[in-house]
Amino acid sequence: MTGLLVTGIGVVAPTGVGVEAHWSSLVRGEPAIRPIEGFDTDQYGVTLAGQIRGFDPKAFVAPQLMVQTDRWTWTSLAAATLAAQDAGYEAPEDAYATSVFLAAGSGGNEFSQHEIQGLWAKGPKSVGAYQSIAWFYAASTGQLSIRDGYKGPSGVVVSEGAGGLDSIGWARRVARRGTPAVLVGGTEAGVTPYALLCQATSDRLSTATRPEDAYKPFDRRANGHVIGEGGAILLLEEPGAARARGAQQIWGEVAGYGATHDAHHHEDPAPDATQYARAIRLSLADAGITPDDVDLVLADGAGVPELDALELEALQRVFGGRATPVPVTAPSSWTGRLMAGGSALNVATALLAIRDGIVPGTAHLDDPVDAPGVDLVQQNRVQDVGTVVVLARGFGGFNSSLVLRRHQEEQAA
Amino acid sequence: MSTTGREGRRVVITGIGVVAPGSMGREGFWEMITAGRTATRRITFFDPSRFRSQVAAEVDFDGRKLGLTAHEVHRNDRFVQMAMVAADEAVADSGLAFGTGGADDAPDPDRVGVTLGSAVGATMRLENEYVAVSDAGTHWLVDPRYASRFLHQALVPSCGATELAVRFGAHGPATVVSTGCTSGIDAVGYGAQLIEDGDADVVIAGASDAPISPISMACFDTIRATTANNADPEHASKPFDARRDGFVMGEGAAVLVLEELEHARQRGAEVYCEVSGYANRCNAFHMTGLRPDGIEMAEAIGLALDQGRIDPDEVGYVNAHGSGTKQNDRHETAAVKRSLGPTAQRVSMSSIKSMVGHSLGAIGSIEIAATALAVKRGVVPPTANYGVPDPECDLDYVPNTAREQKVDVALSVGSGFGGFQSAIVLASPTRRSA
Hints:
The complex is a heterodimer. Chain A is built from 15 helices and 17 strands. Chain A is of the alpha/beta class. Chain A has helices at 19-28, 63-66, 71-87, 109-122, 131-134, 139-148, 163-176, 193-200, 211-214, 239-244, 274-287, 305-319, 332-335, 340-356, 409-412; strands spanning 5-13, 16-17, 33-35, 48-50, 98-103, 155-158, 181-188, 227-228, 230-237, 252-261, 296-298, 326-329, 358-359, 374-376, 381-382, 387-394, 398-405. In chain A, a hairpin with a 2-residue loop joins strand 1 and strand 2 (16-17). In chain A, helix 3 packs across helix 6 (139-148) and helix 11 crosses helix 12 (305-319). Chain B is an alpha/beta fold. Chain B is 32% helix and 19% strand. The radius of gyration of chain B is 20 Å and the shape is globular. The two termini of chain B are 23 Å apart. Strand 6 of chain A pairs antiparallel with strand 5 (174-177) of chain B.
């Protein structure tokens, strides 16, 4: 059976607005991690982030909607618009035929901080009418379904960094139960004073001040990660429905998915990568493929030495028996970790790699750790990419793995 | 076309745990709501005098006295703590021996999932900590020196699913579901789908919310969604009554153990009911507004019944969203009439929010717990504080007194900000060969 097809991609990320802007920035290795703009970070010990430059929300969001929503929702609405444009998708007559199933991580941070500050500094009457709809984790999904008239079964899942992949896993259940088109993925907007502080308490953020020293997954000098904002929203369609409406473009096929939880500790990962490896195996089995069939892995790339080592261990367990080591890259090293938006963005990147046969290298991977059985991609590489495994982990032990495959027309028959 | 994932895999409820206002545990909750007693009161968590709505249904909750360790209490927001306590009760009730390695009733850890709903997650902790790091809103740039080291968990509510997974060694798929006020129905619906689709045999599914904090009260004040009936807190929540003037904020948690039917049968588990159908639709209309016709909720109800191959006339009880706002109760009455047809005129329909308030995302699971108990025990909880009929709400709302009634099929429905409309169908195991 052919899986759901990706027919549209919308990117709003530190690497750019629009899927081609993102790809060209990534392939050219343009630095998207820079000193934080917008507020003074002196007291945080964290000074870098992947912020979206050149994003004009007014180009995507009506003025009356902008005042009701957080920057997080602006990026979601923009990414959804871009995905629908990319797919040439217009809401079908049956409003129930389209679902919105997004991942969320931290909600409407800046909006909420502003309202809570007003409440405590000035009193309850200073809280505006839109706090109740701007902050909560379902805000972007709700606004998107309303703006575009989508009445299908919609949802919001939260599994920290794994969320972008998990939204696709849940979308498959929605499609299996009869809804032919689902918008998936998600964005994040947590580069704000309070949200940055919250994330910093994880002790996983790099305090380096130069981008080349900060977020270095799989490097011997890895010392934490850099946060970022944005993400991607993608349109998934059931193959028959995509064909019936004459979809012009098929980015690829969602071939397999697996998710597990370490269930080990409230913050520390399990010490043996058993469940992470199991998630990968589940996704391969779901896709009906073996480790040998995989051309590329987009890693979670935590940038924390212990977490990187566990990811390599999981990869070795699954792919270690191959004749040639599996190529592994961590594109989030270019953008920072976008929480729920990051794994969604990696799905977009994987599909671009399939299209162009280019594997973007991992940023600032100067001195790779020992990784037997794994081919860490340092520099861009030209190679045929037909099948990609995208990995993501969420703080606390969420492990998710997604298999994407180049779409073969004959399989769709 | 099949409307479920895999034919043949059916889902039953084998354990229930509840943390609700005004009561202790599942049995205290059931005793309270069938007695028609209300748990709404003047807010005690903070001085509410500057707020428009000063009433809430608070839980007298002390995690330490309910089995949590000092560190579990220290690192977790109240919503996670309540979920942990409810989950402990549900798991004990199910008889499943988690973590015993080799016991007959120990499920395969790889086949146990977690779906926890929450509308607003750790909002209480986020606000309290913000007050500390901003010196009560004095500074936009917050001071890390005063921050708890568990703020990342507070920022991202998936920590709640993690705590439950760790607690029971559940290595299957885990997630937090956050669809606003339908979170508690959707979390159970997703949990059932995990089992139907063959990705788990047991799912710890439920929801928790602890929103009785100044920012939550203030944000509902400004849109006048909550009651201003501060003079009579015990009778402030009046679903379907002509005098209703908004919902009463609540808090709490409920967790269910969902289990694949054969899995439950093989270990001889006591079954409360089957989860026969679940559906969710969006109204694509307005973040907070509802059209009076209830079309999308009716659509969700119809689909949920179809999944279980259940005719509308088999429904004996509707556990209503019944928040007590003008528009909700009218909308929902229309949706039930539209989906159940003539059956709507004779079905028993009640809102336990009249007694335990509206705990946002948690209430969906608390209401499923109440509905499952109604099916199992043949008693329908009432709508308390019902006195003055509203011509637009003209169904049988089981006024004020519980009703003994054999219930073979029950519906629980929910409606939330964002336009989400959800429905779940619970059926008695004796209805057909379960």
